User: Fold Zinc-binding dehydrogenase from Halomarina halobia.
Amino acid sequence: MTPKETGTVAYLAEPGRVEFREYPVPDPAPGEVVTTVERANVCGSELHIWRGNHPEVKEGSLGHEALCRVDALGEGVETDYAGEPVEEGDLVAPVYYLTCRRCSACQNGQFHLCENVYEYWSRSPEEPPHFHGTFGTHYVVHRDQYFYKVPDGIDPGIAAGANCALSQVIFGLDSTGVEYGDTVVIQGGGGLGLNAIAYANECGAETILIEGVDGRIERGREFGVDHVIDFREYDSVEARAKRVRALTDGVSADVGVEVAGAPEAFAEGIHLLRDGGRYLEMGNVTPGATTEFDPGLLTRKSIDVTSVVRYDPWYLHRALEFLEAQSDVYPYENLIDAEFDLRDVDDALRQSDAREVTRATLFPN
Ligand SMILES: [Zn+2]
Ligand SMILES: [Zn+2]
Assistant:
């Protein structure tokens, strides 16, 4: 390996403290792709780690959402994971975790639960090939890490986030089985919620958003939600459940999607659904945050609960195709509301944490 140039990595030295480190940009090992990062987005899970809330990860490389440009292809890499030929200069989106295809979860076909999923996540940049996180000038797509060519015409900030919220929402709603004619109630109008509105809509479903923040309600409407239940107005579970019934000819919703990230939202979900309804739990991701729950009602209503974390890696390809077809229909460009130089990543994290900005994108180069 002959170092050609150096690149910068944003490294979390301890919670709340980011340092910049310089490393030689490596030549790709067999199966790897060395890229230049065009855009990297700040996501809620970075904030979780940056604040020191993550139970295990307290330091390491930051960043997982990115749009990358291929600098060099390792031996054996001729196509992306959909078989499209790739060459230097192409724009690609990486799946942000590993699917090893060798562990027991992968053997069961549950690629999203791969036991080696975070093999490179938050790894110290001291370890070659150094560029393990997307908050850096360069990023190495490791061997076995899926990546896809990005179709022309997708806004770069949006393409950078396709590997997170949208891919997971499509995977989750497909796992739950949203069909034409369903009514889908979505609890929470953040990034996951807006993507859920768009995808449920494309599936031919009617959508109801439960939210209580003006800006989020406004964006929900921009994304074409059919009905909004403002929880400042409908301020109890009973009131919201009654409103859902009124909007569905007395039946209640076919499908519920929890993307509020509040334990109580999960407990509420079963009250919003019809007997035999389906429920997708995706927003609560912190073990130990508990709530009161009525399991007897769940049984009586025979509600099917599905929960998903991450997504099967080929869903990123579907997400990119969805964006290519639908980015004119939904105002995805409105989701990114702040741009920062990589050197100002501290400001990007701080302002995102303080909710002064909704979705920040970094320009590393
Ligand atoms: Zn993310
Ligand atoms: Zn695996």
